[in-house]
Amino acid sequence: MRDIIFNDNKINLDSGYFFGRGVFETILIKDKPIFLNEHISRLNEGIKILNIGEKVNQEDILKIINKYDIKYCGLKIVVTERNIVLEKRDIPYKAEDYLKGFALKISNLNRSSKSKISYIKSINYLENILEREEALKNGYNEVLFLNENGYLSEGSMSNIFIVKGEKVYTPSIKCGLLPGIVRNFLIREYKIIEKELTIEDVMMADEIFITNSLLGIMGISKFENKILTENKTTTMLRKEYEARIEI
After folding, report:
1. Same domain flag for 124 and 70
2. Using one digit for the tens of pLDDT, what is the confidence trace for 129-150?
């Protein structure tokens, strides 16, 4: 059995600590958790792939959320062989961020479409962190990885979408990416086309936006040196998404 740890700094040392063998989820919590079932399902799929023990019980997580009255924040759940660690975090994104939009650049590193780690939310996350920190130093908010074949994969903390004409595209999962919760929602609810995309596709896009669970939908106002001013589709999708989850 694993210990569930919240508001405590004591963990059991295991292969998560020594080798980064573990998975995590970051869940948006408003008055209630958003997409909790989807997050726990993805968490448990990662547990299975990494072979690190029994699945997480969604009811146990809900009990913690209710016991500590966790609301209007992000909740990170980290699971290793011997630990389930829960941590609250503030949501860092403000209204002005969505008005301004994010700046996005290409990473010099490639994401491997052959790696199991590319398809799970692993705590082995250092490459993402270092690449994003480098992007931040250079005036960008997010960094985009290509795979070994030169196709778009994902951001360090996000999935990417492009708008061209009346159509919205996103990289297919086989390109080596974690299928995000918001990404999956948009694909279910809208006519999103999954395909292999190139840098040229992004450069020719009318709009670009990225998604993750805390960010929701964020428009891109700058891609490398290209300035984007069109955001009609992005704004529409963001407003409809936020209404659906009752932000």
Report:
1. no
2. 999 999 999 999 999 999 999 9
- Both 74 and 156 in one domain: the answer is no
Give the side-chain half-sphere CA count within 13 A for 2.
27
pLDDT tens readout for residues 76-114: 999 999 999 999 999 999 999 999 999 999 999 999 999
pLDDT band for position 3 (cuts 50, 70, 90): low
Q: Identify the CA nearest to 207 among candidates 172, 238, 183, 181.
A: 238
CATH no. for residue 235?
3.20.10.10
